[in-house]
Structure formats: structure tokens, C-alpha cells
Design brief:
single chain; 89 residues; mainly alpha; 3 helices; 0% strand; elongated
Length: 89
């Protein structure tokens, strides 16, 4: 397991929190898709809602690339589905 963050400081109000939450959600989705295409199993569901911030995604991928290189046999589900969800289709 790898954790990256915090990416943004804690916000004082929910209204201030929402844009950062949405940015991180889009980043999580893009990262889950990337890891699945590399052959890794990803837990949870990551529904595509928005395009990730490209600069932020590149920073995260720079960290992930060393720890999660492509594997020999991809075992990923469809975009936005967990591996468990994909096996049900």
C-alpha cells in the first residue's frame, strides 16, 4: 500500500473543502485507471466524474512509476469499475 499526501491543507469549511475533494476524486480515478492498465488490482470503485488536473497527475505518477511499473499480465476491469465489479459483468 502506498499513500501520497496530504495534497491540500485541511479546509476550515465544507464549502472550501468541496473543490479540493473533487480534485482529489478525479485524481484517484485517473490513478486507478492507470494502475489497472498496468496490471494491478485496485480496491474500491472509482467512477469517472471529471478530468484530473494534469500537472497534479504528473506529479503523482512520478511517485507511482517507481513503485508500480507495468506487470506482465494485466488483470484490470473496465474504467470506473473495481476488479470485483468487472468480474460481475
Amino acid at each position: 500500500m502506498v499513500a501520497i499526501g496530504p495534497i491540500f491543507p485541511e479546509q476550515e469549511t465544507f464549502a472550501a473543502h468541496v473543490p479540493h475533494r473533487d480534485t482529489v476524486g478525479a485524481l484517484e480515478t485517473a490513478l486507478a485507471v492507470t494502475l489497472r492498465t498496468r496490471g494491478y488490482s485496485v480496491l474500491g470503485s472509482h467512477a469517472p466524474e471529471a478530468e484530473p488536473d494534469s500537472e497534479l497527475l504528473q506529479q503523482v505518477l512520478a511517485i507511482i512509476d517507481a513503485k508500480f511499473p507495468p506487470t506482465k499480465s494485466p488483470t484490470h476491469g473496465a474504467r470506473g469499475q473495481s476488479d470485483t465489479d468487472a468480474s460481475k459483468s
